[in-house]
Design goal:
The two termini are 78 Å apart. The chain is elongated and about 80 Å long. Helices cover 38% and strands 35% of the residues. The longest helix is centred in the first third of the chain and has 36 residues. With 250 residues, the protein is α+β, with helices and mostly antiparallel strands. It has 2 domains: 90 residues, Protein of unknown function (DUF541), domain 1 (Translation Initiation Factor IF3, 2-Layer Sandwich); 107 residues, Protein of unknown function (DUF541), domain 2 (Alpha-Beta Plaits).
Length: 250
């Protein structure tokens, strides 16, 4: 075999290996491109989140109060019967004074033992029982509220407990709607300002969350009502609405 033929033969013998290396390199290059595409993530949308608030005022038209009576006795039946008798007297008194029976609801009934102070070296013993019965009343005519509270305590006697007295607006849906509108308008105004400062335009609303306060207004606290009617002044009740809104930025 001549030298020229030998060179040609060797070249043909190594060509398949060179082709294989080239193919492997192309495959690796394509695989690398595919990995880059797989790791690409969509751009996070640009947003602005603002909190707006709206506040409106209204005059309360109802008063709510929790009235409880306590009674003690040497046994369970005596304590429970006395508490039941007293709470019935309170209920009848407030109904006669102008509270509708539909606006009276039992809140809690409790019974607990009472113990003697133990002598040195001995254990305490049950000396009797204490029962309580609590009702919740709604007074819809505020002109009668002072007298209703007075007759309730008079009917229950010295063991009467008065708490949870608060004013409320019976139907505050209109006030809430006004406060909600004001809060959303405040939020949009803030968002538009931020969008303008960022050289953007305001897009669609992405999320909304809300909260409200001022549904009830506490009245002056007192544990015992005197024989004379208690002065009750409803004043003005403020309803505050807060809304958190997220907008897209274009």
């Amino acid at each position: 075999m001549t030298r020229e033929n030998l060179t040609t033969h060797r070249s043909r013998r190594h060509r398949p290996a060179a082709v294989l290396v080239g193919l492997l390199g192309a495959a690796l290059l394509l695989a690398g491109c595919g990995d880059d595409d797989d790791h690409e993530s969509p751009a996070t949308p640009r947003t602005v989140t603002v909190v707006g608030s709206g506040q409106v005022s209204g005059t309360p038209d109802t008063l709510r109060a929790t009235i409880g009576v306590e009674a003690s006795g040497p046994d369970v039946s005596t304590a429970l019967n006395e508490a039941s008798t007293k709470v019935r007297a309170v209920t009848d008194a407030v109904v006669a004074a102008g509270v509708a029976r539909a606006d009276i609801q039992t809140q809690q009934v409790t019974l607990s033992p009472q113990y003697t102070s133990p002598a040195p070296g001995s254990s305490s013993a049950i000396s009797g029982y204490q029962a309580s019965n609590t009702i919740r009343i709604v007074i819809r005519d505020l002109s009668k509220a002072s007298n209703i509270l007075r007759v309730a305590v008079d009917a229950g006697g010295d063991n009467t407990r008065l708490s949870g007295v608060s004013f409320a607006i019976d139907d505050n849906s209109k006030l809430l709607a006004q406060a909600r509108t004001a809060a959303f308008g405040d939020a949009r105004s803030r968002a538009e300002q931020y969008a303008e400062l960022a050289d953007d335009s305001l897009g669609n609303v992405l999320s909304i969350s809300e909260s409200t306060s001022g549904d009830e207004q506490p009245a002056p606290a007192f544990d015992r009502v005197a024989a004379a009617p208690v002065p009750v002044e409803p004043g003005q009740q403020e309803v505050t609405f807060t809304v958190k809104v997220t907008y897209a930025l274009n």
